[in-house]
């Protein structure tokens, strides 16, 4: 038909990273420099109904964050993307299906450590999109003396809860690290955060 088609996006993948659900792809070989991409998604609740994603229409980026457009975190979805340039476009390329609840991958929390006399207050902030804050995210906390392998473990603390540690008997340099956790079908955990170290009961 002599109809010029753009090379379609490649490596189209729906994946979870750092609590988000993201569609990623790479430009098709020989794509023009002004190429943009448009994304739609479909939920297993309503097959063959491809839904537009307003923040991923004619974008230059090669990824689209779908976390907060998902209609249901307990239903599998897939997404598709096409390349557009001027009046030309590529065929749509579809991803595989993923479900947020089953497939979410966690990021480590960021620890906030507040040293008081004889106490440390520790809380964790999670890099979460607002739309997924209501899940029962938890964290595990480790405390150890710098240089020691012997870690005191505090497990399954709810995301918004503060841990108070009595430091009366502790002297020297102590480190804290945490990982996010979540009870799905199986137990999911992030890697541990970079340690935060504090000097306790230092007689200066």
Brief description of this entry?
The chain contains 1 helix and 16 strands. By secondary structure, it is an all-beta fold. The termini are far apart.
Question: Could you explain the architecture of this structure?
Answer:
With 204 residues, the protein is mainly β. It contains one helix and 16 strands. It has one helix at residues 100-103, and strands at 10-17, 20-26, 36-43, 46-52, 63-65, 77-85, 88-89, 93-94, 110-116, 119-125, 138-145, 152-158, 163-166, 172-183, 187-189, 196-200. The strands form four sheets. Strands 3, 4, 6, 7 and 8 form a five-stranded antiparallel beta sheet that branches. A hairpin with a 2-residue loop joins β6 and β7 (88-89). The longest helix has 4 residues, at 100-103. It is elongated. The termini are far apart. The model has no long low-confidence stretch (mean pLDDT 95).
Annotate the secondary structure layout.
Elements: E1 10-17, E2 20-26, E3 36-43, E4 46-52, E5 63-65, E6 77-85, E7 88-89, E8 93-94, H1 100-103, E9 110-116, E10 119-125, E11 138-145, E12 152-158, E13 163-166, E14 172-183, E15 187-189, E16 196-200
Antiparallel strand pairs: 1-2, 2-5, 3-4, 3-6, 6-7, 6-8, 9-10, 10-13, 11-12, 11-14, 14-15, 14-16
